[in-house]
Queue: 2 jobs
Job 1
Amino acid sequence: MQEYTQMLWWKLLKLKSKDPKIRQLAIEQLAQCDYNDVIEHLKLLSKDSDSEVRCKVVEILSKHQEPKSVPILVSLARDTSEKVRELSLAVLASYDGRKFQDIFISSLKDSSANVRWRAAKALDDLGWIPSSDSEKAVKFVALGEYEKAIECGNAAMEPLLAALKENVYYKRQSALEAISRLSDARVPKALLSALNDEDVGVRSTAIDALARLGDTRAVDPLIKALKSTDANVRVRAVDALGKMDDVRAIEPISQLLRDPSWEVRQTTVNALGNLKAIKMIEPIAALLKDCDPEVKEASVKALQKMGDLRVVEHLVPMIIDPHDNVRKLTYKALSKLDPEWQKSESARKVIPELKNSCKHHDHKIRQAAANALTELGEDLPINQTLASLIEKPKNNKRTAYDVLLILLDDADPALRMAAAEGLGRLADKRAEPKLESMLMDLNSWVRRAAARSLSNLDWHPEDEIQKARISQLLDEQ
C-alpha cells in the first residue's frame, strides 16, 4: 500500500510539470491507478492550458465509463479545441446517447465540420427525427448529404453557407453546387464570393452556377476571371460570359482568341458567335487557319451565326480543308448564309486555288477540291500525261495499261493499290518490273496488291529472299 501511495504521489507530482508532454505522460500513467484516486485530478486537468493534455484526459475517461466521468466529458464537449470537442462527443455517444441528445443537437451548429459530423452521426445512430426543415437541413449538411439538404428548400442556406468554410476543397465545391440550386436571395453573393476561392474546382463551380443564373452582376467578376492562370477557369469564364448576352464582355473575351490553350480559343470563338460580335469577324476568320480542327469548326459556326454575308469570302476556301467535319460545316454555313453562294464573287475568286489543289499531295484535299469544282459547275483539271493518253485514239487495253502505270506513282496510296491490282488483271508481263518495285512501297496494302498481281502474272522471284518476301505478303492477305 505504501509503495502504491508513493507511486501515485510521484505521478501526481509530474502533473505539475511545465512541459505538457510530461503532463500527458503522467496522465497515461495515472490510468494504471485506481480510478477513484485520480478522477479529481483528471477533472482539474480537463482545464489544462494545453489542448493535447485535455485530449489525453478524454482518452483516459473513455476507458472508464463511470458516472463521475460524465460531467467532465459534458464540459469538454464545449471546449475551445475542435479536437477535444469531437473526441468528447464520440465518448458521450458510446454511453447511453439519448441522455446527451440535447448536446448533440446544439453541436450541429458547431464551427467545426468534424464536430458537426460527429454530432449528426450520433443523432442518426439514435434514430433522432428532426422537428423542422431547418433541423433536417442542418443534420443533412453536417453528414455531407447536400442533395437531401436542398430538398428542405431555403432552410438549407445557412448550414450550406457554413459548409463553404470547410478546409476540404471538394466539400466546399459540393456545398456551392447545392447552394446554386436554391432560390435564396443570398445565392448570387455566395457564388461571387467563391470566385476568390483558392481552389480551381471551387472557382469553376461558381462560374458555371453564375452562368446558369445569368445575373449581370457577375459580368465584371467573370471578366476578372479571364486572367486566371488556369486554363479551365478561363474556359468556364468565357463560356459563362458568352451566355450572358452582355456587350461589355466582347472586348475582354476577344483578347483570348490567341490563348495558348486550344480549348480556350474554341470557347472564345463560341462565345463571340453567341454574342454576334460582328466587329470580330476578321479575328475569328483568322482562326480558320488554326492548327486545331476543333477551333476551326467553332470558327465556321461562329461566322455563320454572325449572319453577315461578308463572312462568305472567308468561308469559301474552307471547302477544301483537310478535315471532313470542317468541310461539312462550311458547306452547311454557306448554304444558310446564301443559298446561291456558288454564284457569288467570293466563290468565283477561289476557283484557281481549287484547280491548283487538285494537284495537292494529300488525296483528301484533291478530292475535296474536285468536289468543290463540281459544286461550282467547273470542269475538273486532268493530269496532262493522262489527258494525252486518253485523247489519242489507241487500243483501250494499251491505254488502260499506260494510265495504270502512271497511277502507280500517285501520292494517294489508294490509287497506287488500285493501279497495282488493275495491272495484274490486264495480265501484261511488261508490268512486272514496276510491280516488283512496288513490293517495297511504304504502304502495306500497296505491297500486298503488287504481290497478288505478280502472282497472277506467274512472276518468278530472282532469289530466295525475294521469294520469301512475296510469300509473306501473300500470307498477310
Job 2
Amino acid sequence: MPAFILALLSFVTISAAAQAQPALKDETGHARDLIAALVRKDFPEVEAQFDDKMTAALPAGRLAAMWETLLTQVGAYKSCAAQSRVRVVADKQMVITACEFEHAPLDVQFAFDSESRISGMVMRPAAPAEAPYTLPSYAIPASYTEQALTVGSGEWALPATLDMPVGAGPFPLVVLVHGSGPNDRDETVGAEKPFCDLGLGLASRGIAVLRYDKRTKVYAEKLRGALATFTVKEETLDDAHEAVKAARAQPKIDPARIYVLGHSLGGMLIPRIAAGDSRLAGVIVMAGLVQPLDQMMLEQLRYLAMADGTISAAEQKAIDDASANVHAIDALKPEDANTGRMVGNAPASYWLDLRGYDPPSAAKALKLPMLILQGERDYQVPMDEFAKWKAALSDKPNVTFHSYPALNHLFIAGTGKSLPAEYQIAGHVDEAVIRDIADWVKK
C-alpha cells in the first residue's frame, strides 16, 4: 500500500491512461494558480472551483485537512517545474505539474471540465523522466515474451500484460494483485516498478505472470458515480477473479497451477480472493496488511512525523485529523453503507465492508498452500503485521514464511530507516524474493 503519498481523492480522480490529445484550451496557468492557493492555504479559493461531484466528495474543510496530511508525508513545498504536461481525456483537460517537496517530488494533477471547473485532483509520486525503467539483472529477455491481454469484458475490461516463458509449456502462472490506490500493471511508485520486476523475473525462471491495470486507474471517472456502494469487491476482488479466469483461458498455461499474489492491500485481501475460487493452486502474500486500513494510515503518519525526531504543529494536526477519521469510521452504522457518506478518502460502504475482517484468521480456513513474505524495513506494513500472520498460520504445514532484513515495502533493498524519498531512487525487487517465489511455485 504505497500510502506514504496522500492519494487525494483516490476515488475521485480522472484517469491519465487515455491517449494524449492536443489541449482544447490552455489551463496550465489555472493549475499553477491553484497550486499557489494550496501553498498559501487559501483552500476556499480552490473549493469554490469544484464541480458538483468534487464538492460532494470534499465538503468545506476537508481539503485543508488533506493538504496538511500531505505535507506531513512529503515535507514542505519547495517549487514547481517551469512547464506542465497537458492531456485531454474525453471532455476534460488534465494538467500535470511536477513539484518538489522537502522529502519527495510529486506530480500535482488537476482535471478541468469545459467550464474550467475542477473535476478531479490527485497528487502522486513523480517518476523521474531521466530514469527510464531498466531491466533487473535477473530478467533474461531471451527466456520470455510479453503479450498484450485483456482482463474481464464489457464496461470494466482492463488492459493487461502476460509475461510468458519461452517454450511449449504448460506453465504455472501467478496473477499479481495491487496495493491501494489507482495502480498501473507495474504497480509504479515513484521510480520503482515492482510488478514489472516480478513479472520479468519470474518469467525468466519458467513461471508466467499476468499483471493488469487497476480498475480505479482505468475507470476513475466512471467510478465517481458509484461511490455510494463502493467496496473492495469493486476495487480489487472482482478483477482479481477475472484475471484468474483470463489466465485459465491461455493455451500454454496449466489451469491446475494458477497462483494469486497480493501486495499490501492485495495481500490483505488474499483470503477473500482465495475463498472465491476453490481451484487456485496456492496464494502469496507480500507485505499483507492485517490491522484496519484507517488505523495503519494513522500509524504511518506518526512514523513519518517522528522521522526527524520532532512533531511539528502541522504534523500533529494531520495526526489528529487521521485519528478523528478512525473514530468516525468506528462510529459508522450499517445503515450508513448506502448513503455515499465520505470518511477520509473512501465512502462509508468501503469501511463497513472491511469491518471485522481479520486476514490471518480468514486464511486459517484455507486449505491451499500459502507463501507469506515481508520486508523487515517496511514502515507501511511493519513487522508487527508479519508476526500476526505467523501467529495465526505457523502451525499449518503448507504455509511458508520469509522475511528480508534489508528490504522495504516494495521489497527493494536499502539501508537505515525507510522513508518516502527512497522510492524515488530507481531499484528492483530483490533477487532473493524472485528466487523464493519461483522455488515455492515449482515445489
